[in-house]
Amino acid sequence: MLTRRTLMAATAAAPLAGVSGQALAKTPPGVVVMAKQIDDVISFDPAEAYEFTNNEVNANVYRRLVSPNPANVSQVIGDLAESWTISPDGKVFTFKLKTNAKFPSGKMLTAEDVAFSLQRVVKLNKTPAFIISQFGFTKDNVEAAFVAKDPGTFVMTLPDAAAPSFVLFCLSAAVGSIVEKATVMEHDVGGDLGNAWLKNHSAGAGAYQLTEWVASDHITIDANPHSVVKPGVRRVAIRHVADPSAQLLLLQKGDADIARDLTPDLLTKVKAAKEFTVTASGQGSTMYIAMNQNVPELQKVQVHQAIKWAIDYDAIAKNITPNQWVVAQGFLPPGLPGAMTAKPFHKDVAKAKALLAEAGYPNGFSITMDYISQAPYGDIAQAIQADLAAVGIKVTLTPGEQKQVITKTRARTHQLAILVWGTDYFDPNSNSQAWCENPDDSDTSKLKILAWRSHYVDKELNDMSLAATKELDSAKRIKMYQDMQVKFADRAPFAMVLQKIASAALGKGVSGFVIGALPDFTKFSDIKKA
Amino acid sequence: MNGRNGRLAGTAASLLLTLFGLVFVTFFIGRVMPIDPLIAILGDHAPEDVMARTRVELGLDQPLVVQFGLYVWRLLHGDLGRSVMSSNLVTQDIARYFPATIELATVAIIVATLIGVPLGVLAAVRQGSVIDKVIRVVCLAGHSIPIFLLALLSLLIFYATLDWAPGTGRADVAFEGMNPVVTGFLTIDTAWAGDWDAFYDAWAHLAQPAGVLAYFSMAFIARMTRAFMLDALAGEYIITARAKGLSALRVIWRHAFGNIAVRLITVLALTYAGLLEGAVVTETVFSWPGLGQYLTVSLLNADMNAVLGATLVVGLIYMALNLFADAAYKMFDPRVR
Amino acid sequence: MSDVVKRAWLLSDAPTSRSQAAWGRRYRLWCDFSSNGLAMTGLVIVVLLVLCAVAAPLLAPYDPTLQELANRLSVPTAAHWLGTDELGRDVLSRLLFGARVTLGMVIAVVVTVAPFGLAVGCVAGYYGGWADTILMRVTDVFLAFPRLILALAFVAAIHPGVTSAVIAIALTTWPPYARLARAETLTIRSADFIAAVRLTGASSGRIILRHIAPLCLGSLIVRVTLDMSAIILFAASLGFLGMGAQPPSPEWGTMIATARRFFLDQWWVPLMPGLAIFVASLAFNLLGDGLRDVLDPKQR
């Protein structure tokens, strides 16, 4: 346990450093201070956590059976699992566990913990539970489906066969985190399986453990003394700093070691300065324009295409969002398995006008567009408004808070909307299901994701998406997703515009911070501080 | 005696009514907000069955009137519910955020009074002089500058350029959560713990936002002081006192100032109430973890329990200060009795 | 009539007609007012602002919505006197057009709030009893509310935009007017001339409308002028918090909100609209201050 005294001993002169105006490293040694927007956190319970910050922290606090291979994202490698076998019918997965994973309590992680954790996810049935339960697990069959055969062997039996890569990718998600059964059950209150306690505590075998979380203020994680991975710094203090320029200032003053939410302009400035390094990674987040199919003007395929040909993608990416968003036009952005790297669309006013005329709108039409009233969405919305005006589509902008815009699109009352979608798990099915599957367009549908929200019904893509989840051959499966994206780009009422790039600026002497393609894969344990 | 009790009961009743109105308005504004509270709780990606179950669990499927009744019923039992954003009890959150706002507002009003009152007196005594004009412009400027501009400029100058003050937030990360919470006021708790580095740090962080707020309210206080003083200085007793040959200082401070003290307290109470809510923008710019920020963030996330709880507290204090100001005013001015 | 004669007519000690007396009184007030340098400065700026707003299309060198993405956040140059914003739009042109939005909002608020507050206050003060209790209780509820929070909640509940911002500001601005009007009414109500009017059989409505309300008007006007700057600041604050006018509208507060993220590096971008708000608000304050001196000498 780190005490204030040890911190202070190292930083006795800290308050004076600022006065002298020197950029001394003011943060204590062995402690990394990260400036980040953390007001998205709701809970740290891995069965419930579903926002960016908590998933990222959990990636360092908990371990999972498998994780994607950083060298080849189409493959998974073992994390807790030493090896695994899959029965020929694709239903029974048998995992042999490594024998070196230990919880902060000093106890070894066993197959019992694995079975308990996965059962717990299905039983609690919180937001991310569907990632596991979509394979047919229910609270009635989980006890039989997840079994600890012996302390080193975990057996999972699927009710129905599914593509093995699909199953494994889902187990690599944050929701597949393994908790310590004994500790969690000690804090069970009224049969909540420790849910209330795990909201702001941790019981994982990762490199760190959660010490303190104060909402919208700070998160402190300290090294797990029994972890097999010895982290480079013993404490990571994540401080909520809402303002990006304030984040940069903290970095410049040595009050923070890592700044996470710098805007494109600030990143450009940081890159020019020698004392900082910037690390970046493409994310599984896509910015797109949804065209609601209940609006008559938006129903024709030519209109979908006209809008896609009207946007000046490169100008937006280059001028408004350098280092933050790049052009990506498939529903699987680069970095995800099955990604589409081709960019079929670029700004072509003549072509867009011709398409509009072909659709019966030679003089364009008027329409509203919702967007999230935050940077950079406001700037992007205004740029797109100008682009669409150039081909004759008069757009009225209607901004709203993020949750307000989401509420509206879920109620299907938008016309055009600029939205962002982050993939739920690393498997292509997450996005393919979201954008292509809409088996029931009625208000009582059980699947109300992106296609449903814009009344997009496409039987062919819907069926292709379903078929891909059953394909046992991984290479064939990837090919299916790539074919789907070509059809999707051609006709879907979604203009895929940009892919998120997450960047972090590291202060002097700080290195080794690697951002994952999903928050679930961002690691703190390699961070070094000189 | 009876009359006074009656009046007291009347005041209490009207206070309760106002409070009820406050809850009522906040509740219904919150419920018609075009944000589905479930999105705040579960996020955008939650499957339909989880959404439906949670809606029932939280009673959000009930008619609004029933929900309101339930809320008031719980409120009467001291239960403000749980915040979605922090997953704490709202009472816990308020206990945490409120001292930060009080600390900020209190320091601001003390500074504002210490500067504003003498300035106002000076302006009144030297009415029409250059000093009076300068003070008037300084005060009007304080009324005219948008507080967020002042806050941004302050950060730009004192933090980014001159490096005199620390940045945003309430304490340096090295001191965060290091001293036991006794009062919730960092400037007191750190001294209590004898941690003088943290004490210095707390004051350093307080200086900028408090300074910005102080200037803002100083302008108002100085103006009002000047007006009251002019009024008092024109009074006959002052002329008599002067005629008796009392020194100018004595006349100004003992007689005239003594006479306006009550009205000044009224103004201070109102200014303080204004500060409590005026801190919203300042807290946003300085990332000050106070009630104003808590309220705005909760509001934008449809965290209605938090919004209601925080509004109630601010409203209650606001009302108490108003009541106090009213009472003081009534004592002084027979016209409104 | 020559100037000298006109002046003599206006300042005559023995006016021969009602209008001469009235004009004479106004002229004397104007003399008082115009001798106040600060107030005159305020008046001149306000007039200039109004002119800018009216003539914005003639004065603005560019279309305020014209984007030039390759020339974002430019420093002030010969081509763009006040630089360009985050989408490469000319800041000067946006400020000029923004004056329309800002002044428009202020006027909209004032014409909503003043009559409403006056009506509530007069009715409550005149009738007393239950009407007074109920109206003042409602007023208290609104007064007890943290103003900015009520406005934020209200705007969030309908939709961010100029109209809802105006309604929200009006909603939180009227209570002091009602209180003021009520206090004035209370002092007037028992005056002899009201009793005299009542004896002639005038209806309550007529008394309020024709005799009480006009007398409350003076202090209300001073309050309105002084409030103008507060309204400008309020609108700007809403814009700053993202709840006022919405992009691409060049409302000044909104401009600061969208440019705030550049304030450490391209500080002039948010500073320009900030200065505009400051100047406009200061001008109204100077003007209101001068007016108060003239109309309400006691407060001087």
Question: What does this protein structure show overall?
Answer:
The complex is a heterotrimer of chains A (530), B (337) and C (300). The longest helix of chain A has 18 residues, at 474-491. Chain A has three domains: 4-61 and 206-276 and 507-529, Periplasmic binding protein-like II (D-Maltodextrin-Binding Protein, domain 2); 66-182, Dipeptide-binding Protein, domain 1; 282-502, Dipeptide-binding Protein, Domain 3 (Dipeptide-binding Protein, domain 3, Roll). By secondary structure, chain A is an alpha+beta fold. In chain A, a hairpin with a 2-residue loop joins strand 2 (66-69) and strand 3. In chain A, 57% of the residues are buried. Chain A is 33% helix and 22% strand. In chain A, the strands form four sheets. In chain A, strands 1, 8, 9, 10, 11, 12, 13, 14, 15, 16 and 17 form an eleven-stranded mixed beta sheet that branches. Chain B is mostly helical. Chain B has two domains: 2-76, no CATH class; 90-332, MetI-like (MetI-like fold), CATH 1.10.3720.10. Chain B has helices spanning 2-32, 37-42, 48-57, 64-76, 90-125, 130-144, 147-161, 186-192, 196-233, 236-243, 248-285, 291-300, 304-332. In chain B, helix 6 (130-144) packs across helix 9, helix 8 packs across helix 9 and helix 9 (196-233) crosses helix 11. In chain B, 50% of the residues are buried. The mean pLDDT of chain B is 81. In chain C, helix 5 (91-127) packs parallel to helix 8 and helix 10 runs parallel beside helix 11. Chain C has a domain at 99-296: MetI-like fold (Orthogonal Bundle). Chain C has 300 residues and is mainly alpha-helical. Chain C has helices spanning 3-10, 18-34, 37-54, 56-59, 91-127, 129-144, 147-157, 162-189, 192-199, 204-240, 252-259, 268-295. The radius of gyration of chain C is 23 Å and the shape is flat. The longest helix of chain C is centred in the middle third of the chain and has 37 residues, at 91-127. Chains in contact: A-B, A-C, B-C. The interface between B and C is large, with 53 and 50 residues.
